[in-house]
């Protein structure tokens, strides 16, 4: 039979050894910071993807605007497919909205904000109005080409939310916009 004093001494000794042991401390520390670390990594990746998609959209609109200005595209679907050929790597082209308008010289250019006061995206005012084509006379109009894409966001918790449409809902999105204006020299 064990001596009660001996068993207390053994228990005390084992508790001291357990307290001094550092086995598993790295795993515990990692478990404490892992959620924040992964949230930061995913937020950086998502922000990078937003910037990459925005740059792709800008490049597609620049290239497409030249085609509109020189009358190489004849219809809205043709123009949209031109942009889609450049952005389809990251974007669903069915969600791409375009707005092409031409303005006479000296006319003020009024561009409406596609996000209303409540934070909703409004695309019902978009048109395709390129300048009239003339094979002999270049256009004297200013052409403004805009394209919009609603980029879905996934990392919106932990105080990081770059949504600018439908913010605070379950469908947080960032509106990517690209604009190009071309006119006579």
Q: Per DSSP, what share of the residues sits in E-state strands of 2 or more residues? A: 15-25%
Could you name the ranges where pLDDT drops below 50 across 5 or more consecutive residues? none
What composes the largest sheet? 3 strands, antiparallel
What is the succession of H and E elements?
HHHEEE
Distance between the termini: 105 Å
Oligomer: single chain
Radius of gyration: 29 Å
Count, helices = 3
Strand neighbour order, sheet with most strands = 1-2-3
Annotate the secondary structure layout:
Blueprint: H1 4-20, H2 25-69, H3 76-87, E1 96-103, E2 142-152, E3 173-182
Antiparallel strand pairs: 1-2, 2-3
Helix pairs in contact: 2-3
Describe the 3D structure.
The chain is an alpha+beta fold. It has one domain (23-182). It has 3 helices and 3 strands. It has helices at residues 4-20, 25-69, 76-87; strands at residues 96-103, 142-152, 173-182. Strands 1-2-3 form a 3-stranded antiparallel sheet. Helix 2 (25-69) packs antiparallel against helix 3 (76-87). It is rod-shaped, with a radius of gyration of 29 Å.
